[in-house]
Amino acid sequence: MEHIAIIGKGSVGRALDQRFKHAGFEVVFGTRTQHGNDEHPVGDAIAACGVIILALPYLEAVQLVSDYAIELVGKIIIDVTNPLASDWSPLPMNNGSAAEVIASRAERAIIVKSFNTIFADVMARAENGSTTFIASDDSNAAALVLELANAAGFAPVFVGPLVQARHLEALAHLNIAIALGQNGGTSARFQFERLG
Ligand SMILES: NC(=O)c1ccc[n+]([C@@H]2O[C@H](COP(=O)([O-])OP(=O)(O)OC[C@H]3O[C@@H](n4cnc5c(N)ncnc54)[C@H](OP(=O)(O)O)[C@@H]3O)[C@@H](O)[C@H]2O)c1
Question: Is 43 near ligand 1, meaning CB less than 6 Å away?
């Protein structure tokens, strides 16, 4: 059974913790300060787990993977981040993506983009079934994350190499634009459906 470290105990971190714990996985948090038994210094959480979920703001995530590049060698990183400015607008990524920047800073880790298109409010719901897209250059890591997502009650869809994160981050920006600009709220989701 995979041990999962979630870096960041905000809305997304807590929602994914619920889903993965419910599915029977061992989950620990990597946090800047420790208050509960499940909260550990980031380096300890990374050392204890093979799968690391980045559930913190994008720029903080870039700094963190740079700081822990050595500790992250060989680990599977699930990048949940969206590159957002403080007003929720997209940060300019120069035709790249947050996932590719993170991959460039943690060169010897294996990066998988997933869960970034689902609002935390939706992730937190039991009996989830929400589509989570998966992009990675590493087919074994993608298959593992697909298995984890499935076990946690999501409906995973592999979309190809990490470069596809550009589209996944754009999809998240659209979700946010509907939620904020069109009063859509965060109890909404994109579902992928193949018609027979
Ligand atoms: N909210 C959503 O619906 C949603 C959906 C999909 C993806 N995302 C993405 O997921 C990420 C997390 O979003 P969120 O809504 O969960 O944010 P959030 O509620 O603001 O929580 C962010 C967490 O990150 C922690 N953090 C920041 N810097 C850190 C560091 N250097 N080391 C350890 N922890 C650190 C913060 O801890 P402190 O208490 O120490 O500040 C906080 O607990 C973001 O990149 C966001 O774009 C969000």
Answer: no
